[in-house]
Specification:
838 residues; mainly beta; Methylamine Dehydrogenase, Chain H; Immunoglobulin-like; five-stranded mixed sheet; four-stranded antiparallel sheet
């Protein structure tokens, strides 16, 4: 059994999110103190720092906008930042409420679809599995590795990266920043939570395993302390009971193996700590300042010989010369500030180089890019004190102590250099093995950087935003991922089809070679040859939200909608666009979009807390604020009635689900026990009586009109952020895009617990129905008898099946919801819900 920390008890204080190392989090941009800054203060500070400059690649703009997109709904409207305890306590409350309603066998059966491995398509250029923040190697067995990921938990391999497993999925937040292994008892492993570089998830202290990661429990710093991330855990190799931890505001020390902690330094964002090789009394720290301790971490003294205008400092040492200390410093604009070396154990430093720009995108270093507050790493060879490795966007090597540099890996796949994906978060030697953690996964070099091996295969850590199921092929999906672009899932295999960050997608109803992909802020692409080539089709001159909503007409796949500042409609697959709103939002970007399944006359979209709707195809519009001070995060329109819809909404004070039965005029609150979870999306199951699935920051929930509560529909699913949900074309599977654990699927809810995923699969049409319903067996054994029950379980009738498809006569049934039980040889093959409408 996996251990779960009692978080509601441990998290007694709010852990304020701070971005303290970033240049905009300083005067004159930030108008309040760092400790007082909320979401709105940070937005304004970033806007002041960035100014009116256009978007520039490699400057950190998109990383901030990603954080802004994630945080905006749960901080609305007062800017109050959430803690991990908000979501954890809300989940525990929702599960408790569901227990009163849920039948023991009414469970999901979630299984992962990947990404586990990938191939690179003709138009792909930055493939990968997902971001890795940290890599740790077992002290006596180099085949055992642990990796920490920002929203997918900790993973372990025992064969050097050939296979990976995780036991972290039951933790109620999956953000991890670092791992530390006990030097003499490697069964003991510590994990620092949160996301030290991207802030995608909230921290809840330290977790500890005493059985090599099989189970996890409380490792300390879970209560009574205000911080965001555990940036680094340092265990004294000579006295493992002595430990140090650095956070965005403090350094903490423990003398009893992590049971008790005390603050030994405060006031700086420390990102890394290292012991001087062979001397555990000397410790170096880097972040927005360089610190040194000579008393084993009891006190720390700043070093004034290090540049004070840096945004971030990373440090590295080497046993090849224990007196050497290297500093990699960025400048105030996040690009390369310089490499500095000390030959006297950090007492003084000499600048070794300040050019070329080894933190940017260019393979020659001739750009001015850099995003050091997000990605910055340095390592030194353990056998040659002059051989230095630096990671920014790419990996570079110096053989003369940092004076001259040669590029080793480049962010473009197949670009003539080694590949370790863009954005390097981690570089470290274990023995002569050089490990790299990047936005694409985990990599290792066995020859000091000359060649690189991708050891990420099997790491299901993709941060998906959105996806589209194909109606032409039930096993075809196009999905967009943070850092790893747009990806195509075709019959079990993944292909990276386009780079950048991937977002919303659409798939043609009849031809799976025609689909639409997107990247941030309205970059909309179309392919007609299965992803070999793409055309850019946003010719409107407008930008969109970070995730730009797209939609397709339910009747014609050539009619598509693109939500930017205005809502645009194309009747020819994106060649031409008509503006349907003409300034309706006053420049505000559209956040959510839904077209009624019954037709394109009924359109709903939102900007922040305002909902706009049209019931005449966009000729006229009405705006309303149905949710008060809540940020709308999802819209679902009934498949049977275009005037019936549901929305999810979030705020700093909680979350809501609202329902309208008159096209948006009036609303009722149907939230139940879901408040506080961070609700991200909602869909309706057309084959159940107002069956609703909601994706949250911790899993999936379900309800319908036969229930009085929301059920946690998450058996087999990690406790992960769920960004989008869709039902596949045959109506047999629910799929979910998770932000940190890839794409997943399960059979749909049914109260009998029959696992549709492993038994007979049928397709029913039409549903809802009024006279006859066609039941086609598409997988598994065909039924011999179909028995009909009402929602109370009362037997109504039965029909003998003589053909496939079978036609079931429902003309005698009154309007209502029914179960069909498909049987053969006295065994139940499947149970399906139908709706009869007269």
């Amino acid at each position: 059994m996996k251990a779960r920390v009692g978080f509601s008890v441990l998290l007694t204080t709010i852990m304020t999110l701070t971005l303290s190392a970033q240049p905009w989090m300083r005067s004159p941009y930030l108008k309040v103190s760092k400790s007082e800054a909320n979401f709105t203060d940070m937005q304004q500070a970033f806007g002041s720092w960035w100014g009116d400059k256009p978007y520039e690649k490699g400057k950190g703009f998109k990383q901030f906008k990603r954080w802004e997109y994630i945080m905006a709904p749960v901080c609305y409207p007062d800017g109050q930042l959430p803690s991990a305890s908000r979501f954890i306590d809300a989940y525990n409350y929702a599960v408790k409420a569901a227990e009163e309603e849920k039948e023991s066998d009414a469970t999901a059966n979630w299984i992962p679809l990947g990404i586990t491995t990938w191939t690179n398509g003709n138009s792909g250029y930055n493939p990968g599995n997902g971001r890795v923040n940290f890599i740790a190697e077992h002290p006596t067995d180099s085949n055992i590795l642990y990796v920490a990921t920002p929203s997918g938990g900790v993973w372990q391999t025992t064969d050097g990266g050939v296979n990976w497993t995780t036991t972290f999925d039951d933790q109620l937040r999956l953000g991890t920043s670092c791992v530390a292994i006990h030097p003499t008892n490697p069964n003991i492993v510590f994990v620092g939570t949160g996301d030290k570089d991207g802030w995608d998830t909230e921290a809840f202290g330290i977790l500890k395993s005493e059985n090599s990661g099989a189970t996890w429990g409380n490792g300390g710093l879970n209560s009574g302390v205000s911080f965001t991330n555990i940036n680094k855990i340092l265990i004294n190799p000579q006295n493992p009971n002595s430990m140090l931890v650095c956070t965005p505001s403090n350094i903490f020390k423990s003398l009893n193996g992590g049971i008790n902690w005390s603050s030994v330094y405060s006031g700086s964002d420390i990102r890394n700590m290292v012991y001087k090789p062979g001397d555990t009394t000397t410790i170096y720290c880097g972040g927005d300042i360089f610190l040194k301790s000579t008393d084993g971490g009891n006190t720390f003294i700043p070093n004034t010989s290090v540049p004070n205008d840096t945004c971030r400092i990373e440090i590295a040492v080497t046993p090849a010369n224990p007196a050497y200390v290297y500093i990699l410093a960025s400048n105030s604009q996040n690009s390369f500030g310089g490499v500095y070396r000390s030959t006297n154990s950090g007492s003084s430093f000499l600048q070794m180089s300040s050019s070329p720009n080894i933190l940017g995108y260019s393979e020659t270093g001739d750009d001015d890019a850099g995003q050091a507050w997000y990605d910055l790493a340095i390592a030194v060879s353990p056998v040659d004190a002059d051989q230095v490795f630096v990671g920014g966007v790419n990996v570079w090597r110096s053989s003369d102590g940092g004076a001259n540099w040669n590029i080793l890996t480049h962010w473009v796949y197949g670009g003539g250099y080694g590949y370790s994906h863009a954005d390097i978060h981690y570089l470290a030697f274990f023995g002569t093995r050089l490990y790299c953690g990047s936005d694409g996964g985990a990599f290792v070099s066995h020859d000091f950087g000359d060649t690189w091996n991708d050891i990420s295969s099997g790491l299901e850590i993709t941060q998906f935003y959105a996806f589209s199921n194909s109606k032409a092929d039930d096993y075809f999906v196009v999905a967009g991922a943070q850092d790893n672009g747009s990806n195509m899932y075709d019959n079990g295999s993944w292909t990276h089809v386009f780079g950048a960050d991937g977002f919303e997608a659409l798939t043609d109803y009849n031809n799976k070679d025609i689909y639409y992909a997107s990247y941030q802020n309205g970059g909309i692409l179309r392919t007609t040859d299965g992803g070999n080539n793409f055309d850019y089709i946003n010719t409107t001159g407008q930008d969109g939200s970070w995730l730009t909503p797209l939609a397709m007409s339910p009747q014609s796949s050539s009619v598509i909608f693109m939500a930017l500042e205005d809502l645009f409609q194309s009747n020819d697959g994106g060649d031409n666009w008509d503006n349907l709103t003409n300034g309706l939002t006053s420049g505000g970007k559209i956040d959510e979009l839904a077209i009624a399944p019954t037709g394109i006359n009924d359109i709903y979209f939102s900007n922040s807390s305002t909902l706009y709707y049209s019931h005449n195809g966009g000729t006229s519009w009405t705006s309303t604020n149905p949710v008060g001070s809540f940020f709308i995060t999802g819209i679902a329109v009934s498949h049977a009635d275009a005037n019936k819809l549901w929305i999810t909404a979030s705020s700093s004070s909680g979350d809501r689900v609202f329902k309208s039965e008159n096209g948006g005029v009036s609303w009722s609150n149907v939230t139940g026990a879901l408040s506080g979870l961070g609700l991200n999306c909602i869909i309706e199951d057309p084959n159940s009586p107002e069956g609703l699935y909601v994706g949250s920051n911790i899993g999936v929930f379900y309800t319908d009109t036969t229930m009085s509560a929301w059920l946690n529909f998450d058996t087999g699913l990690p406790k992960v952020i769920v960004r989008e949900l869709e039902i596949n074309a045959t109506g047999s599977k629910l799929r979910g895009a998770t932000y940190g654990r890839g794409l997943w699927e399960t059979h749909l809810y049914n109260s009998t617990g029959i696992d549709n995923g492993n038994k007979t699969v049928v397709e029913m049409f039409p549903n809802p129905c009024s006279d006859f319903i066609s039941i086609t067996t598409i997988e598994g054994q065909a039924p011999e008898i179909i028995r009909v029950f009402d929602v109370s379980g009362r037997f109504i009738s039965e029909e003998t099946v003589t053909s496939n498809p079978a036609m079931l006569d429902v003309r005698s049934l009154p309007t209502g919801n029914y179960y069909l039980r498909l049987e053969s040889d006295n065994q139940v093959l499947d149970v399906q819900k139908i709706m009869v409408l007269k």
